[in-house]
TrEMBL record, chains A, B:
Domain Cyclic nucleotide-binding: 13-97
Pfam family, any one: cNMP_binding
Domain of life: Bacteria
Protein name: Crp/Fnr family transcriptional regulator
DNA sequence: GTAGTTTTGTGATGTAGGTCACAATATCAG
DNA sequence: CTGATATTGTGACCTACATCACAAAACTAC
C-alpha cells in the first residue's frame, strides 16, 4: 500500500473526507526517508513539522543532564510524532525524535496544519480527535505510573505494542517503563 | 464577574467568536452548584457532560480496589473537568470527579459539544486547542514522574497551583504527587 | 464550649528498584 | 572471519519511599 492510501485509510477511519478534500490535504505532506538512528528533531532546535509514520519505528524521548533517557512514545506505522509542545508554542525542542529502525514518514508543517484546519473544517475535526486520543492515552499512562509497579507496566507495554518486543533493544523498553535496564532484565524470569 | 463573562473571556483568549456565535455557544451550557464533597461523576456510571469551573475546586481521581486514590487533576476556575475517556467513547466512568470545595460550574453535554463543533468551526478550533494543552501538560507530568523524585514533584506542584496549598488537605496533595501522605509530611522540613 | 471525626506528624521497619562493577553475548564493519 | 562496539545478564550494596502504629492537632457538629 502506498503512502497516500495509508494516510487516507487512517484519516477516513475518523473523518470522512471527499476525494478532492483528501487530495488537497495530502498535497501538503512531504515524504521523507530516514536511516536507523537518524535524528529528526533535536533538543534546542526549532520544530517546524510533525511526522506521520508509514514504515518503521520512531521514538520521542527526553534526555536529562546526567544523560538518562526517558521515552515518551514509540511511533509505529500510522502513528504521529513530533515535539508538540515546541510545535504548538513555537518554542525550541526539549525532546528528541529519532529512528529506532529505518523509517518512512510523511512530514506536515505546523503552519500547513493550521492552514488546513482553517480551510477544511473536517481536517480540524480530525486533528481534534487525534489529539484527544493522545490526551486520554497520556492520562492512562500517568495513572499506570502512579499505581503499577515495573512488572505491571511491562506487561501493559507488551499489550500496547506487541510488535515492539522483537524490534527494539531492551534498554529502550526500560527507558519507556521508567526503570533501569538492570531492573527490567530481572523482571522477566524470577 | 458573571458566568457568561468568565467563559467568554476564557474562550476569547484562544479563539475570537462573534457575540452572536458566543451567545449561541453559551446557550448550551447549564449552571450548576455543588457542595463541598459532592460527587459529580462516579465510576461505573455513564458520563454525559464536561464541566467548566467558575468558582471553587474540583478533583478528578482514580481509586484502586485497595482504596488508594490517585489524583489526575485539580480543576480550578476556568479549567475543565470530566472523565474524557468515558465521555468520548461513550463508556462508563472509570474515574471520579468531585468537589474539593463548594463549586459553581457550567455544564456542557458531550452531544452538544459535538453539535457545536460541527456547526461552528471556531468552536471546534477552540476545543482542539484546549485538548492540545491538556495533552502537552499530561506529557510533561509524565516526564516529571519518570525523572523527578517526590520533593521535586512537590515543588512543581506548588508552581503549577500556588493557590492550592492553603485550600486542600495535604492528603490530596500526596495523592496528586503519587506518594503516601507520610512521605509528603516528611518532605517539607528536613 | 465538648465530643467526635478527620487530618497531620513521627518513629520503626520493610522492600522495590537504583547504582556500580564486571562478565557474557550480540551486532556490525571491514 | 575477526576485531570492535553495543547490548544484555547478574551479583553486591544502597536509598527513596511504603507501610504500620500511634500520638497530636485541627475541624465539625451539636
Amino acid at each position: 500500500m502506498n503512502a497516500k492510501a495509508i494516510l487516507q485509510e487512517h484519516v477516513a477511519r475518523i473523518t470522512p473526507l471527499s476525494n478532492e478534500q483528501f487530495d488537497y490535504f495530502f498535497s501538503h505532506f512531504t515524504p521523507q526517508s530516514y536511516k536507523k538512528g537518524e535524528t529528526i528533531i533535536a533538543p534546542g532546535k526549532a520544530v517546524g513539522h510533525e511526522y506521520f509514520v508509514l514504515h518503521g519505528c520512531l521514538k520521542s524521548f527526553y534526555r536529562t543532564d546526567q544523560g538518562k533517557m526517558f521515552i515518551l512514545q514509540f511511533a509505529m506505522p500510522t502513528w504521529w510524532a513530533s515535539d508538540y509542545e515546541a510545535l504548538y508554542n513555537g518554542t525550541r525542542a526539549t525532546t528528541t525524535v529519532d529512528c529506532v529502525t529505518a523509517a518512512e514518514v510523511l512530514r506536515l508543517s505546523g503552519a500547513d496544519r493550521e492552514k488546513l484546519c482553517r480551510e477544511v473544517h473536517a481536517v480540524e475535526s480530525f486533528f481534534r480527535w487525534r489529539t484527544n486520543r493522545g490526551y486520554v492515552a497520556a492520562q492512562k499512562r500517568l495513572l499506570s505510573f502512579m499505581h503499577h509497579d515495573a512488572r505491571q507496566r511491562y506487561e501493559e507495554l507488551l499489550q500496547l505494542y506487541p510488535q515492539l518486543y522483537n524490534v527494539v533493544p531492551k534498554q529502550l523498553i526500560a527507558a519507556y517503563l521508567g526503570v533501569s535496564r538492570e531492573t527490567l532484565s530481572r523482571l522477566y524470569q524470577p
